[in-house]
Amino acid sequence: MKKIKVLEVNNYDLPGKRFNGYDMIQDIADENIDIKQAVIYKESDNKNVVKILNNQNHYITYETLESVEREQAIHNVFSITTPLLHTMKEYQEADIIHFHMFHNTKLSIYGLKKIASEKKVILSIHDPWFLTGRCVHFYECNKWQKGCQNCHNLNNMFPLLKDNCSSLWNLKKQTFADIDVDLVCSSDWMLDMVKSSPILKNQTNHKIPLGIDYKKFSSISYKDARKKLGIEDEEIVLFFRAQNEFKGTPYIVEAMKMLNTKKKITLMTCDNEGLINDLEGKYKIIELGKLKDKEMICAMNACDIFLMPSIGESFGMMAIEAMSCAKPVIVFNNSALPSVTHAPKCGYLVNDKDSTDLMKAIKYLSENEKERLSRGKLGQKIVKEEYDINEYNSKIKDLYISVSKRKHKVPELQKLTENDNTNKLKAYLNKLTIRLFGNNKKITKGLLYQIDKTKLDKEPIKYDDINVHIILEDYMTKLEKIINTEKNIVKSNSKLRRIVFYLIHDKQALLDKFSQRFKKKD
Fold this sequence. Notes:
alpha/beta
């Protein structure tokens, strides 16, 4: 059997490593499968993880294009990560490209077409972003089923300054109509959404629930975990992830304001701090901030109830972690969590976005130890039967083998048809070129387009015109060659900004710069 080479692509390596491809390097790779990972932000020292952005030109261009997308009210269109990915040795050698968190990696939607013409592609659908014009979670909105016209919420994750959602939805639909890829969904809910999506319904689907190493979660006892965190025996600890966007923290705050019980309640959070300040004085508060794996395991074992009233969730890994520690989980009746936690039998189900019902559930479980223990024990059993990491790894490995054997339809790349819309795009790209390189004529000469100024009007560029994306792919490819070969030629507003870029993206490069300066002085 020929060795299958897989490249996992994500924005990070270590954060989310259990499901973003990083752990697969160790857990799945064997004599038949070779796995590497390409990321924007590398935090590990793993030699099999490579960075997509590698120099100051890359970082500044990446940040500038983010600004361009904000100005144009678009998302995952102006991409430098896609052409940079194409040039990587790891990409060129790979048989399969497995994308995770595609939107966070700032990859080009249309760029999938070229990748699918060169490689076999797997997309893990970690959330509904591919189903919509822009939204990561669509909540109760059903416009994603008809074209995302007249969006009523442009301000949640990946906000737009104006409503371009329908145009972006059309772009996704046109792109997926021409490609043949394999989609991985982690829950029945997400799989059902994909099957009913006008964008994704014709792709090949696979349901593979995420898995965890549940044995790790018994590495510390309830008593020892509580002692480590300074929690007394009589305290009933409610643990949750504090985050306003999706995790339902405002509903928890409202519920806790209404709660009236004789039990001594302690609120313990991870992730963001300061979101439950309104509850200070009424409850003991423990804010743990960002947690590493061992710290998360300790916190899960120390709590009595895990709260996960998310308003958008395609799986819910933290619910599974809590269940593996035999903790009851309270969830809203929406998205994937009810089915994933086997609510109402195991997961405790409350009405969607209902703080009063949430309060009643918290009160009931806080005051009924027998019910807490019973649901916790059932949850632990479900995790062992359905969410074992070994089973997950085995299914992913089988997927790689089957995808490598499956004959995929190779998309034909469309030829360019010039029109007034592409003329407007070229005019905008000329402005972008000057913005990036100033008056450096040696550089700009190869990027500037000839345009017909008589055909420029004030109408915005229509981004559901595939011809626009053919030009963009060409421009970004030429741009990639320049920022790869020339040294520090992309304009930066200040030296301070450059230092900030390095601090965010490449601390080692910043240290190397300073050490070189000191050597010169010596």
